[in-house]
What does this fold into?
Amino acid sequence: MIREETVKKLIKFRDDRDWRQFHTPKDLAISLSLEAAELLEVFQWSGADMERAEKLDKIKEELADVLSYCLLMADVCGLDPDEILNAKIARNEEKYPVEKAKGRSDKYTEL
It folds into this structure.
């Protein structure tokens, strides 16, 4: 759970450096995608086992970057992360009812 004080700390970090001027939705989306790719890179060439133990520090670092850009994007767009996440969960519950989706990885159109 991300606490409100943590989000405020992130926003203050950005604002103290006058970086909001660079944080357009387009540029934040690009940065988010790049950081997500860096997270994915942690697992590149790792084989079928996808062992995480020795990579946990790098996973934490890259995941923090992804979360930061998500929160900054929500701020710039005037969106409440908790509200939009709960709305998405509700939509997914409709698309993927437990009785049809449990234990399956099919897309909702295939259930």
In short: The chain has two domains: 1-79, 80-111.
